[in-house]
Design brief:
This protein has 114 residues and is mainly α. The protein has seven helices and no strands.
C-alpha cells in the first residue's frame, strides 16, 4: 500500500475516509491496525467531531503539531471548506480527492516522495 486511497472504500479494506488516512499513517499515531480502525470507525461520512471531513480529521490527528498548515493546505484543495457537508454540497469535491489531499499533505510534511 502506497496511498491512503488504496484502502478507501476498496476491497478488502473498505475503510472510510478517516480510516484510510489513519491506516496509512498508523505508525505516526502509535497505533496498530485494529486500534486505528476502531478509533476512526465513526469519523467518516461527516461524523467526525464538528462535522469535519474525516480525511482532514485523521490528518490533524496524525500531525497535530502542524494543524494550521494541514488545514490551510487542505482548504486549498476543497475551495476553502473543511466540513464534509460543505465540501460535498458547496465545492463538489469528491471524497477520494479529499483522502488523496490529506495523504499528499501528510506525505509532504513528512518528506515522503512519490
Amino acid at each position: 500500500m502506497t496511498k491512503a486511497t488504496d484502502t478507501f472504500r476498496t476491497s478488502p479494506y473498505l475503510h472510510n475516509c478517516a480510516q484510510a488516512v489513519a491506516f496509512k499513517y498508523r505508525d505516526a499515531l502509535g497505533s496498530d491496525e485494529k486500534q486505528v480502525l476502531a478509533r476512526f470507525a465513526n469519523c467518516g461520512a461527516g461524523r467526525a467531531e464538528g462535522g469535519v471531513c474525516g480525511a482532514l480529521y485523521a490528518a490533524l490527528a496524525v500531525r497535530p503539531d502542524a494543524a494550521d498548515e494541514v488545514t490551510r493546505r487542505f482548504k486549498e484543495k476543497t475551495q476553502g471548506y473543511t466540513t464534509c457537508l460543505e465540501i460535498k454540497r458547496l465545492s463538489g469535491v469528491p471524497c477520494p480527492v479529499c483522502v488523496q489531499a490529506a495523504d499528499d499533505i501528510l506525505a509532504s510534511l513528512s518528506g515522503e516522495t512519490e
